[in-house]
Structure formats: structure tokens, C-alpha cells
Amino acid sequence: MTETTIQTAPAHKSALHDFLAPDAIAIIGASTDPTKRGYKAMVGLIKGNYRGKVYPINPKVSEILGVPTCASLDDVPGPIDLALICTPAKTLPGLMAECGRKGVKGAVILASGFRETGPEGAKLEQEVLDAARAGGVRIIGPNTSGMFNLHKNVNLLDLRTAKPGDIGFISQSGNMLLSLVLEAEYNGHVGFSTYVGPGNQTDVGFNDYLRYLGEDEHTRVATLYVEGFRDGQRFLQAAREITPVKPVVVYKSGATELGKKAASSHTGALAGSYAMTVDLLRQVGVSVVHNSDEILPVAEGLALMQQARGKRIAVIADGGGQATITSDRLSEAGLALAELSEATRKRLAEVLFPQASLVNPVDVAGSSDADPEVLARCVEIVADDDNVDAVFLVGMFGGYHTRFAESLLGGEMRAAESMIEFARRGDKPLVIYSLYAPVKPPALRRLHEAGVPVYASIEYAVKVLQALGERGQYLAWQHGQPLQESVAPDETMQAMFSRAQTEGRDLYEYEAKTLLRTHGVAVAGEVVARTPDELAAAADAFGEQPLAMKVVSKDILHKSDAGGVKLNLVGEAALREAFEQIMASCRAYDANADIRGVLVTPMAKKGTEVIVGVVRDPIFGPVLMFGLGGIFVEILEDVAFRAIPLSRRDAESMVEQLKARKILAGVRGEPPVDKAALVELLLKVSSIVTAYPQLSELDLNPVIAYPEGYAVVDARIITNRSVLNP
Prior knowledge:
Blueprint: H1 17-20, E1 24-28, H2 37-47, E2 53-57, E3 63-64, E4 67-68, E5 82-85, H3 92-102, E6 106-109, H4 119-135, E7 138-140, E8 147-149, E9 154-155, E10 164-171, H5 174-186, E11 192-196, H6 206-215, E12 221-226, H7 232-242, E13 248-252, H8 266-270, H9 274-283, E14 287-289, H10 295-305, E15 312-317, H11 320-332, E16 336-337, H12 342-351, E17 362-363, H13 373-383, E18 390-395, H14 400-403, H15 409-425, E19 430-434, H16 442-450, E20 454-455, H17 458-478, H18 491-502, H19 509-518, E21 527-529, H20 535-542, E22 547-553, E23 565-569, H21 572-589, E24 595-602, E25 608-617, E26 621-628, H22 633-636, E27 639-643, H23 648-657, H24 661-664, H25 675-691, E28 695-705, E29 710-712, E30 715-719
Parallel strand pairs: 1-2, 1-5, 5-6, 6-7, 10-11, 10-12, 12-13, 13-14, 15-16, 15-17, 15-18, 18-19, 19-20
Antiparallel strand pairs: 3-4, 8-9, 8-11, 21-24, 22-23, 22-24, 25-26, 25-28, 26-27, 28-29, 28-30
């Protein structure tokens, strides 16, 4: 609970402020029927003490809940910031035109029956959007659950149990909002600032809402439940700007298959996955939660404490079993037990029983049974250690007076006050797990009131510590990490792309390698032989070293399957024999294949195989993949994704993210690979992709990594036939 002032994103003010914090609201379709949304919205505004003007629109009655009605928007006597539209879908095009004439700034459209229902619904949705844009009206929805702004007393959902607070929530599920509101009511420390259901995102999308929450002075953490992004690139750009100044939490449901059906490469087959989306969100500093019941604890923890400077945790426990469980969960979350200094251990020894464990996790071994204030002193001691980034108190604090003696209540309350003071003045988060949290004893209630997080689950608490540590590391890493700039496109390479596009094909392997070589990627030499007589040049060029021969054909994608690859060839005679065998096999595989000869190149030395790939994802744009290579890439799926362009830290983190990173570090006597060279390769590929929009997909598989450098063994580039040279 560090005293952190709410910052706002360094960007121009979002237009959403004009209607998400409205001074005048029209309820189109206001009703006297208590079961209708047009009635509930009126109740929510009136009983919520909304201070602005409310204009119910209903030509059939004269007043609703004591508020005079208007027959139409044209009859409203003053300006309108926000219109809540509760009428059927077919009325929307006309109503949007009416809103435009009135100067309404934003409209919340509750109705369904649009794009989600099929082509006719999509056509109607476009008509609504066209009418809104013509009149300068922004749209929330359609098919939305609604919105509230509790600091403005705008509660269009009549959700009376929602309390004002610091969490801004954007959710494609209305039930997820209800779940979080109920959880916050009974267990949470904080409440909500703004809620919006984005619905179909016909106009306003997640990126717009994120910018709004980033600027909102009442929001300390932006939280989103996402079923699908419509413009992932714009969301990532918004997140890059917001996360340095305010935490962002995302729960992404499901795993999209976008792009998979049309994929024709290893990278394409793995793109569009849930794992890819998670990697891209984390790349821009978003805290991703994987379970819906983690949303509020993580959002709450970040709202209260913002960040930890790292992932080294000091654990103070009053039971050995829970200390062990905690250690396991911390390790699984990628957190570390801080190594306490000798000075810290000496100070702990002065306040704990001799049998206490002074090695992290610190087990007080009964020292607090008669004096709970010992725990507060231990918190102070370990927090003073420079090796500690956050403190985790685990056990039965708050319940000592119940478990042992009622006289201990005073000590527990004094300990709670000490912890509150520590949290207020310190820069190291304190997170508490108590098995007594569900019954809310006095000391825990006091901590709760003061904003010190107490959880009834070790797992929830660890997720909070993980989010705090990851955010702290991101903030430290992102400073001074410029994105990789694109290289200047080469005219010869541009002509090569144009030729391939004109011929309706992808780049041949030798062309792909030429592109890489032109822009500084280390690629072995090769010779393209179109006839057996041209093989002599290859034999002369490479001497007696073993060579590989591959068919060159736009029609044969999987060369090995067609018998189009021969290895370990030495001398011209071996090359001629292999040439004839390849031609015969490939003709048998596809008699109509367009074969342009063979590619001859030196065999690569044995090493560690990795893959580097690129796809242009339909949602997130160009995405780079790195992982374990060879034939196992799609089986093991041990890969990392980053959106292009990359920073150097992005490239470094891709290499470190792999589960197989121990292989790269060297196992069973093998030397470690040249990670620095792999990082440079990733950065070069990123810059090439941004320079050539004609490049649709790229596969370098395998790339063989060595103790010094690497070898690109196979390269494939799929062209985008619809993008011509700039």
C-alpha cells in the first residue's frame, strides 16, 4: 500500500471523457415497467444521486419516477452528453441520425441483433455506424450490458452493491462484472471507478477504453475481460503508453484460431493462439491472469501497491507446512526466495526463539504464539534487507486471540497498526495470507480498512506478488529500450519481390536467403544449378566439403516428402547423381511441378536447432516467433512470440522464456550456444519485416545455433500478393 499518486497517460485527452463522465443523459426508451432496462437505468440514476440532468424519452407517458418525459430528443431543452438507447435494433439508424442532429456526444446501445446474427445484422450494424459517424456520435456497443461511472454517480445498470473505488473495468461479459462486484462487496479492499461493456465494438474498441482509463484520475488500475480484440495492433500501442504509468490487467478468455486455417508454415500453424496473445500482452507490460477468480485479487493488489522492484520474496510463516506450500507456489510463479543477509538473520535471532528457522522462508516456530507483535517486527527486519523486494506474511495472523488466548487481541491490533504504518511509508509491498481471513477478525478488518491486502488463499497472494514483481521488472526494463528501426529496403530485393508476386509465387529459398544476407544475416553461400552441367561450378566453389542439394520449385513446398533433398554429397559425380535422383523423384511426386533446378550449399555442422518465424496476424499485425526448431516445433510448441518491431530486451526475453533454455545454456557437457548472436538475428529479422510489407510469412527452420554464431539451414518466405512495392 505505497503512497503512489495516480498518474495519467502522457497523451491527448480521449473524447470518451465527454460522455463517460456525462453532465446530461437521455434515456431513449425510458419505461414505467420495472422489468425494462429503460426503467432500471432511471432508478440507478435517481437512487444513485446523479447530479446531472436526466431526460427520459417516451412519447406515451408524461413522467417516469417523477421526472418529466420528452416525446423525442428534439424536445429536450438542453444539450445531451450521453444517450442510453433501450429500443430495438431496427430503430437504431434513425435514432443515430436524431442523436447527431441534437449534438449527442455518445450513445450506449443495448440492443442485440446486429453482426452477431449474420449478414443482415451486419448490414444493419454498418447503417447504424454510418449514421453515427455522419452526426459525430460515438457508439458504445451495440449488444452491450451498459456502463457506470461511480465517481460521477452514473449507474445505468442500477447495480447498487457496486462501491466507488480505483478499479476501472471493461468486460465483454456482464456476468463477469456481477461476479467482481459481489466479490469486492464481501472480500475486496477496493471498489470500481468506471465500467463499460464494449459489446460488438462497432465504434469504440478496447484500445479507446484503455486510453480513457489511463487518463482517468479516479482509476488506479485498468482491468479488462476480453473475448476478442478487433484491432490488436492499436490495443498494443495504447498499452505501451499506459502501462508505464498505470497497471493494466487482462483476462483473455479462449484461444483464437484466427489465421490457422490459411497458414502454410510452421510459424503460421502456431500463430493466432492463446499463448501468442498472452506473450504480446506481456510484451507491452500488461499483467495477464489465467483464471477468472484471479482478476479481482490481482487488480486489487496492483491498485493498492502498484509494483515491486523485483521478484525476490521474503516469507515469514508461523507454520512449517504453509511455509513449504508457499515456497512451492512462489517457485511455480517464477518468483524467488530472497537470500537474507547475515545481518538480517542476526536481527531475526534477537526477536525469535532459538528453534526458529532464520533461512528464508523464516519459520518463527512458536515465537509469535504469545506475542503476535513479533510478526510485525520480523516484517520490518526482512524489509530492511537489500536482497528483498517484497514481504509475504503467511499463517494465522488475526486469529491468535481465537486460537490461543483472548488477551492476545491487543497485541494483534498493535501489530496490525505497525504493519499499516510500514505499508504507508515503505516501498516494498507487504502481502498477507491468513487462514482466518474468511471470518474477518478485528486485526484483519483493520488491515482491510487501511488498504493492506489480506488473502484467504496462498495461491491468490502469490499471483499478486507475481504481478507486482513482473510490473516492477517491466518498468525497469522498458526505460531506454527503443524499438528496433527498420532497415532501408534494397531496390534489388524490391524487384525480387515484385517478380515473385507477378509470377504468383513465394520466394525461392535462395531468394529468401539473398534477402537475409543483404541485410546482415549470416547465411552460407549457395549455387543454383539449373542443369547437370552447371554442377561443376558448385563443386569448384565448395571443394571437398559435404554439400546439401535441394529442389527449387514453387510447387513443391515440402521438399523432403517429394524426395527433393540429398545430403552429404562430395564431388561433382555425387552431385550429378543426386541431381538425377531429385529430378526423377520430384517428377513422380508432381508431374506438373515447375522445377527451376537445385540449390547446392555446404552442410551445416551439428548444433542446437531453433526456429525463427514471422506471421502477419490478422488481429495483431506482424508477430515474431522463436523456439526449439527442427521437426519438433509443432509437437512441443516451446515457443515465444513478440509483436514487431522489437526492442533489444524483447529479443533477449524471447530466448530466456523457452522451457528449453537449459539446452541453449549447454547440457551434458555441451557448450552453451551464442545467445547474443541469436538476439541479433531476431532483431535483424524484425527490421527486415518492417521494411518489406510484401513479406507475409517467414520461416527459418532450422537455424543451428553454435557456441559462436549460427547457421540458417532453411529459409522460406511467403509473399503477400495483395501488397505491391511501396
